[in-house]
Amino acid sequence: MPKSTFDSAAIRNQFPSLKRKHNGHPMVFLDGPGGTQVPKSVVDAMVNYYSTSNANSHGAFVTAMETDDTIHGMREAMAAYLNAEGPECISIGQNMTTLNFSLARAMARILQPGDEVLITKLDHEANRGPWLTLREAGIDVREVNLLPNGTLDYDDFKEKINEHTRLVAMGMSSNCIGTVNDFKLARKLTYEYNAWLLLDAVHYAPHFAIDVQDIGCDFLLCSAYKFYGPHVGLLYAKPGTLDRIPTDRLRVAGQAAPESIETGTLNHAAIAGVKAAVDFIATFGKGKTLRDKITSAFDTIGKHEFELASYLYKKIKVLPGVTIVGQDFSKTTRTPTVSFTLKGKTPLQVCEHLAKKNICAWDGHFYAIRAIESLGLLEKGGVTRLGISIYNTKAEMDLVIAEIKKLTV
């Protein structure tokens, strides 16, 4: 594997949790797809908010105004992160799932029986379940099929989208097997049929730069805790789009985007942490603007993550009994997530073995239950998933490879 130019020691030093030892040995965090570790700058931003500016918003006094500035500053940072048209496009929620349910409830009020929504079998349930509820209102919710290689069946996609399709909801990448979907094709097809496109970027946003204006999506959802921030859900809505749907909101709440989908008091300290997470990522890039730095940063981050994931993939693929689930690593158009099964061992047994060496790895379906079911793996316990993040190292990959090899003997 080519030697990375990453200064891993300096990066890892920014994460307090990486200093933790369990039973005298360091932790190896390969659970990033379920939530990354958090740098000290993010922790400090949240502590600073509670220490100096803890107040509700829209007050005439200084701490309330500082809270307003915190919220607006985070919207600006996320607008740069996604290349949104402006901070008014960024709505804040408890998590991606809650925001998506809010969108689905709102759209149920304007869609008519006979209208159709298209989802996929590859998606996380957070981008399926909310839309499946529309069947109760007489909306036809259809599924794009999944091929055995872990990619969507785009011929099936083209057959199922039609003049009755009002919305396509699909992931940018699969959280369970790392597939990157052809969301630009989805945009092309939705344009042809005048349908909205909603993208789930939860698993994509930690690894690649996103340009919502270039993609042309109407909605995009992501979660800050997947890119080194706290547990906050984020919604991008194209200008004017959110104002066209009747969201659940109180009479006294904001009646226009971005506030119109935000219910109740927001988590202000976490919001401060989200901005700090964006700023943290930007430190790995170069340029005059925050957007320039973010775009540049993902070139660097992506190269590091892909090198490690590709190395891990090549080493465990050849081990006896190991079957990789999903695409190979011959191209960079996939996330640094390696999922596999091991003959004679359930995914849980694999993860339990790894856990004895302080290696944090996930087993199961990761809420992408329809995908794992479609691949015939649900009754077998799903897959073992290893996710690479910015702080991982080649030495950690070698440790994981050695431990998996022990299970194949």
Radius of gyration: 21 Å
The tally of structural domains comes to: 2
Whole-number mean pLDDT: 96
CATH architecture of the largest domain: 3-Layer(aba) Sandwich
Tally of contiguous helical segments: 13
Report low-confidence residues grouped into runs of 5 or more: none
DSSP strand content: 5-15%
CATH topology of the largest domain: Aspartate Aminotransferase, domain 2
Structural class: alpha/beta
Report the biggest beta sheet as strand number plus sense, adding barrel if it closes: 7 strands, mixed
Task: State the share of residues found in helices, binned by percent.
Answer: 25-40%
Secondary structure: number of strands? 15
Short description:
The chain is α/β, with parallel strands linked by helices and 409 residues long. 37% of the residues lie in helices and 15% in strands. 48% of the residues are buried.
Summary keywords:
4-stranded antiparallel β-sheet, single chain, 2 domains, Aspartate Aminotransferase, domain 1, 15% strand, 37% helix, 409 residues, alpha/beta, globular
